[in-house]
Give the backbone structure.
Amino acid sequence: MATIKVLDSRHEFTVRWQAGPDADAAEIVTSFPLEAAEGGARVTIYESGCDRVPGDVGLALAAQATEDYAASLEGLKAHLEGVMA
């Protein structure tokens, strides 16, 4: 479960979550800052904390997140292009 850390609908959305079920699990923080761009907005994704997850699990989390965010952004782009067409 994630906790909303920052919610500013015009500038940034940030969540934090534990990388495991116990209280000592590393905290992962994901930020989605928004910037004005020509013809719309640009979203950038920053994620930190995977390096504090022991062993190969942190690397696997980071790799999976990269794939998941890429797919999500492609879906968002396709949706927005359809809505704006």
In short: Residues 2-84 form one domain. The CA atoms of residues 50 and 57 lie 8 Å apart. The helical segments are 55-84.
